[in-house]
Amino acid sequence: MGEKIILGHGSGGRLTRDLVRDVFREHLGETGPDSMDDGAVLPAPMGELVFTTDSYVVSPLEFPGGDIGALAVCGTVNDLAVMGARPLWLSLGVILEAGLDIAALERIVKSIAAKAREAGVQIVCGDTKVVEKGKGDGIFINTSGIGVREHALRPETIAVGDKVIVTGTVGDHGMALLTLRKGFPLKSNLKSDCASLIDPLLTCFAGAEVKWARDATRGGVATILNELTADQPWSVLIEEARVPVSDAVAGVSELLGLDPLYSANEGKAVMVVAAADAEKALKLLRKTPLACSAAIIGTIVDEFAGKTVSRSEMGTLRTLGILASDPLPRIC
Question: What is the mean pLDDT of residues 178-185?
Fold first, then answer.
C-alpha cells in the first residue's frame, strides 16, 4: 500500500479498498462498521433520539493529550451528552491529503477506536476521500452522532439564584496547542483535556436538577456563557477566584496576557443547576475522575441583563464579551 497517501487512495478502486481494509477496518476493529454497505441499519430504540454533526480541523494533527481522531469522537459524544443523551452510533467521514504518512493515519485511526470503546459507541458507517497535496491540511474529519435522550434539560426554567458549574480546569486544550504550535520553550506539563464526558454528565443529570449544559470548546467558557445569556432578562455573574485553572495554564496565560476563560476545552462542560441542587450536583461530578475538580463558579443574577460579568478577588466587575474572532485557529 506504500508509506504515503496518494490520490489513487481516493479513486474508489483497489487502492481505496486496500486503505479501508488495511487501515480503517483493521484498526477500528469491533468499534467499526459491520459491513461495507452504503448505509447502516440501526435498531430503533425507545425514546427520543438526539442527532449531531461536527467537523474537525486541527494543527498539529497530534498533540500532548490527544489527536484529531480523539477530538472527533470526544467532541461528538460530548455534544450528545450535554443534551442529556447517551451516545450510541457515530459516522466517520475522512478527507485525506495526498502525501500524508500512512503511519500517522494508522495512529489516528487507532485513537478513534480507543475513544469509541471508552465512550461505548459504534462507528456504523464512514467515507474516505483524498485531495491533492496542498489542498488539505493532512486530515479533515467529520463525525455525526446519534444518541438516545435519557434526561430532558429545561433551559426555559433558569431563574435568578441558579448556580453555574464547570466540570474541571479551563483552558487546557487551547493553551496546550498554542504552546506546541508556537514552539514556546516552556517547562510545563501542558496537555489537552480531550475526553468523553458521558459518565460524569449523565450521572449528574440523573441525580440533580440540571437545567442547561454545553461543552466549552471553541471560544471557551466565556463565549458559551454569552450564548446562554443573550437576550435574557438575567445575567451570569462569575467569581474569578472560583474558576479552576491549572498552574500550567495560569502561568502561560499570565505570560502571554491571555484569559483562560476564552481558551478552548475539549473535555469540560458548563452547566446551570437549580440553586437547591448545586452542592448535590458538585458532589456527583467530583465522584467521577474526569470531573474531580468541578466547581461552582457563578450565579444567575437579575442585574446586567443579557450579559456575562466577572467579579475579581478585589471586587471589581468586568463584562466578558463574546469572542469576536478566534485567536488560536484550528483548535478542534
Answer: 78
* pTM for the full predicted model: 0.93
Which listed CATH number (3.30.1330.10, 2.60.40.1180, 3.40.50.12780, 1.10.1040.10) goes with 7-149?
3.30.1330.10
Q: List, for residues 59-84, the tens digit of each pLDDT value.
A: 899 999 999 999 999 999 999 999 99
Q: Measure Cα distances from 210 to 89, 126, 160, 237, 322 in Å.
A: 25, 34, 14, 18, 24
pLDDT tops 60 at residue 117: yes
Of 322 and 65, the structure prediction assigns the larger pLDDT to 65
Cα–Cα distance for residue pair 161/171, rounded to 1 Å: 26
Residue 136 CA to residue 170 CA, distance in Å, equals 30
Nearest 5°: the CA angle 72, 217, 59 is 55
Listed in order, the ranges of the chain carrying CATH 3.90.650.10 are 155-319
Where does CATH 3.30.1330.10 sit in the chain? 7-149
3-class state of residue 305 by DSSP: coil
**What tens digit of pLDDT does each residue of 283-317 get?**
999 999 999 999 999 999 999 999 999 999 999 99
User: Cα 290 to chain center, whole Å?
Assistant: 13
Phi, psi of 8 (to 5 degrees): -60, -25
CA 95 from centre of chain: 20
Average the pLDDT over each of 35-49, 94-108, 129-143 and give the range with the smallest value: 35-49
* Ramachandran assignment for 10, one of left (phi > 0), alpha (psi -120 to 50 degrees), beta (any other): alpha
Superfamily for 155-319? PurM-like C-terminal domain (3.90.650.10)
Q: How far apart are CA 33 and CA 9, in angstroms?
A: 19
Q: Distance between CA 34 and CA 124 in Å, rounded?
A: 7
Residue 216 CB partners (closer than 8 Å, separation 6+): 166, 170, 223, 224, 264, 265, 268, 269, 270
